[in-house]
Predict the 3D structure of the following.
Amino acid sequence: MSLVLKSLEDGILTLTIHRPEALNALNRNVIDALSAALEAAQDNPEVRVIVLTGAGEKAFVAGADIKEFADFDQAQGEDLARRGQRDLFDRVEQSRKPVVAAVNGFALGGGLELALAAHVRVASTNARMGLPEVSLGVIPGYGGTQRLAQIVGKGKALEMVLTAGMIDAETALACGLVNQVVDQEILLETAQAMAGKIAKNAPTALAAALDSVLAGYGRDGFGVEIQRFGQCFTTDDFKEGTTAFLEKRKPQFPGS
Ligand code: CO8
């Protein structure tokens, strides 16, 4: 089955990341499939708004695929982050058609970063969000160090990045990380209703509004993030963090 399911109705394209056996974790193939679907949507006049969600009731996206990068070196780590940001995360944020994320469960690491790149977020009551990267010996590498602070402010963002902890949907609503929280049974219809409201407006004005809001945020930090993300791959902490995850045990970080 395809890694990204597509359905187009009344101008709303719903893209569902479909890799349930790995809680929809983002490997290279998922990134490519999602990226292609977003690119195609830009040129399809029938698409007015895009809704992005994850398959199943447990996870939106549980992160980047840890198995895929566990044995990468610095250059490969940097390349992974750079290509991922360019091919997917920037493409979501810079989409001329508004993107609504329907966060239907765990949104962790790259999964939360994907939701952060969307323009609006609706979450189900069971959603859990966090950036657990530092618990793996790495940092958010898909724009999380930049976009989380832009959305919730530096203080809350640093708390989330440094503790690597998860927050629930109500906490996410209270700090502005998500725009709305509803029961999971009505999550998709709520996200699609919001998309429908947006879709009634002038497409050219929507694109101009997105462009204008984004212009207010600098891009320098993304480059620093890519570089620092790559450097993490040279550390013993990273080796220990990812190995411990794959061996399903708690890490013992050597601190080097
Ligand atoms: N990558 C790969 N596989 C994963 C991931 C992941 N991120 N998350 C879950 N899976 C797999 C599990 O390994 C497991 O597979 P298997 O059955 O073969 O062992 C399956 O999905 C089901 O997961 P669990 O059995 O762990 O389910 P639980 O209900 O016990 O736990 C959790 C659910 C809490 C979500 C747990 O799966 C978890 O902690 N997952 C990892 C979360 C995480 O750390 N995400 C961040 C990853 S790092 C990241 O995203 C970096 C972003 C920046 C990268 C930039 C370039 C790469």
DSSP finds eleven helices and ten strands in the chain. The longest strand covers residues 4-9.
